[in-house]
């Protein structure tokens, strides 16, 4: 005799019945919401709905909206950092510092093309001082080791790169060249052919990274 499946009680599911929360997927949804609508415009309830989970479960996991913003920004920044480190470590030991810098810049822009929300959030928060901008600056620009910074210092010690502060080329990379891949609607409007060509984005990334590295050379 076949045992019938248990019947769920009417009403909301019990806490144990909630679907498992994929943290990375949830943070991607949250980061995209903060990138699109800003911190004030983003809603915890809308983020939960987009992630396919309950508002209560999201609040229980991350707490306040500020805590969710921090977790989402950490997630996006650390993904960029890990990818850049992996790329530079995989290069041949005999590669020149300029070639390694070019590879790091290309990988950074490819990462932004795949996950543009993080640079969009930084662009939003960078327009005015506040605790969220302070968090980004202290945690990632001053408290995190980036291959770009180490490669620039190495090239300067060798006399290969110009003696400029890291903020100059990194800002050109992240917010200059980065805009080419993060602001897709703008680029599609300005240069419609680039978005339609199969290798258009790849060629744009390589050209932008090459210009930055060539500009660093003495």
Automatic annotation (TrEMBL):
Pfam families: TetR_N (PF00440). Coiled coil: none annotated. Residues 1-20 are annotated as: Disordered. The keyword DNA-binding applies. GO terms for molecular function: DNA-binding transcription factor activity; transcription cis-regulatory region binding. Residues 43-62 bind DNA. Keywords: DNA-binding, Transcription, Transcription regulation. InterPro entries: Homeodomain-like_sf, HTH-type_TetR-like_transc_reg, HTH_TetR, Tet_transcr_reg_TetR-rel_C_sf. Residues 20-80 form the HTH tetR-type domain. This is HTH tetR-type domain-containing protein. It comes from Novosphingobium arvoryzae.
């Amino acid at each position: 005799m076949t045992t019938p499946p248990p019947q769920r009680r009417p009403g909301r599911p019990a806490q144990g019945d909630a679907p498992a929360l994929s943290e990375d997927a949830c943070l991607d949804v949250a980061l995209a919401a903060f990138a699109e609508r800003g911190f004030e415009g983003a809603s915890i309830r809308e983020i939960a709905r987009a992630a396919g989970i309950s508002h209560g479960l999201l609040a229980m996991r991350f707490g306040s909206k500020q805590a969710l913003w921090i977790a989402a920004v950490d997630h996006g920044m650390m993904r960029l950092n890990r990818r850049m480190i992996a790329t530079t470590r995989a290069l041949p030991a005999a590669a020149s510092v300029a070639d390694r810098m070019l590879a790091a810049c290309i990988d950074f822009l490819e990462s932004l093309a795949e996950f543009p929300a993080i640079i969009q959030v930084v662009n939003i928060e960078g327009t005015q001082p506040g605790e969220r901008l302070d968090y980004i600056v202290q945690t990632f620009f001053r408290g995190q080791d980036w291959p770009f910074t180490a490669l620039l210092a190495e090239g300067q010690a060798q006399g290969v790169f110009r003696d400029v502060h890291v903020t100059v080329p990194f800002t050109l990379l992240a917010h200059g060249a980065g805009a080419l891949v993060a602001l897709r609607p703008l680029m599609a409007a300005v240069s419609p052919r680039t978005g339609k060509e199969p290798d258009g984005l790849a060629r744009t990334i390589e050209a932008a990274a090459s210009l930055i590295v060539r500009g660093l050379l003495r």
